[in-house]
Amino acid sequence: MPHTLVMTGAGRGIGRVAAANILRESPDVHLVVVTRDGAEVGLPAPAGGGAVSYCAADLGSLDSVRHAATLIGERIDAGELPPLRGFIGNAGIQYPNALTTGPEGFETTFTVNVLANHLFVRQLWDRFRAPARIVLTASDTHFGDLRHNLAMVPGPVWNAPAALARAGAFTAPASAAAGRTAYSTSKLAVLYLVHEYARRLPAAVEVIAFNPGFVPGTGLARHADPLSRFAVRRILPALTLTPLASTPRSAGRWLADIARGVVPAPTGSYVDRRRVARSSRESYDPARERDLWDILEVLSAASG
Questions:
Q1: 181 three-state secondary structure
Q2: CB 109 within 8 A of CB 179
Q3: Residue 196 in contact with residue 190, Cβ under 8 Å?
Q4: How distant, in Å, are the alpha carbons of 50, 192, 204, 205, 226 from that of 29?
Q5: I need a labelling partner for 192 at 20 to 30 A (CA). Which of 11, 119, 206, 280 fits?
Q6: How far is it, in rounded angstroms, from Cα 24 to Cα 26?
Q7: Which residue segments constitute the domains of the chain, with CATH numbers given?
Q8: In the prediction, which pLDDT does 150 show?
């Protein structure tokens, strides 16, 4: 049956590969791609009766996200889009500090990686039609150990969510280490959010956290210093020849399969590449999950 799938982070890296796979393999889908200025990103022509359209949103601005989600919701209500059966929150960002803020004054890593996803899902909450699946891209950096982080990203440092949403939440906030800590902490928050969604979403609306593994060359480090960008582009891709890293092509295909429901996974799952796995011990904390939900609700409402 025709259905709508909304996706962020489809302009490059694994998201672009995933979007292309979805359009090729799902002829009934209308893929709504959220880009910063609403511009087309050169995705292939949809298969069969499928379609693709674009919606503008600056994910670092909650007002912009709310406007985009409202427009999408209105298109669904008017029958311009078929029933909503999915959302892929794939967009992610990492800064070389923990001081960068958006228009509403929230720290940008937390805004893009956590708040924007929450606002999209909450604005579209009542429009999801079962069976539906929400997929949020996570990261194994949330483990905080050498095996998963390869000594490149510090582990998460949890704090009150209201503090994490503001600039300067970590030690030496102007440093690259603080920026990377903000990233790993935001990805821990994604897992908390997925677990809380699993408790609150209507029946048959699944929510999955997807970990693509370390994927060099996706553009995640585009705000890093020149040496780090060079390493990510020219040196670290060699790790894809080992089990330590994934290629954008593989990770994008996995993401598409999970979003399409090809990979079976119960709601609230952490899918590591293509298999359901346990996330870190720290990532299972109902009290933190409720606290995060509560503050995201407050911050989302306050920005409107």
A1: helix
A2: yes
A3: no
A4: 5, 29, 19, 17, 40
A5: 11
A6: 6
A7: 3-302 (3.40.50.720)
A8: 66
CB 173 within 8 A of CB 97: yes
Spell out the residues 6+ positions from residue 126 whose beta carbon is closer than 8 angstroms to its own. Answer: none
116: tokens are 């924007």
Are residues 30 and 52 in contact, defined by beta-carbon separation less than 8 angstroms? Answer: yes
Find all residues with CB under 8 Å of 275, minimum gap 6, and list them.
none
- Under a CB-based contact definition with an 8 Å cutoff, are residues 2 and 27 in contact? no
User: How much is the pLDDT for 147?
Assistant: 73
Q: Residue 267 to residues 26, 49, 61, 296: CA-CA distances in angstroms?
A: 22, 29, 29, 21
Phi, psi of 68 (to 5 degrees): -65, -45
Q: Which two tokens stand for residue 300?
A: 């989302």
What φ, ψ does residue 225 adopt, rounded to 5°? Answer: -70, 160
pTM for the model: 0.91
Amino acid identity for residue 64 in this structure: S
What's residue 227's pLDDT? 45
pLDDT tens for 151-180 read 578 999 999 999 999 999 999 999 999 999
Amino acid letter for position 301: A
Look up residue 280 and give its two tokens. 């870190």
CA-based diameter of the chain, in Å?
Answer: 53
Peptide bond into 131 cis (omega under 30): yes
Inter-residue contact 88 to 7 (CB < 8 Å): yes
Q: Tell me the per-residue pLDDT of 98-157, one tens digit each, with 9 for 90 and over.
A: 999 999 999 999 999 999 999 999 999 999 999 999 999 999 999 988 777 765 789 999
Task: Give the SS3 label for residue 71.
Answer: helix
Strand partners, 128: 84
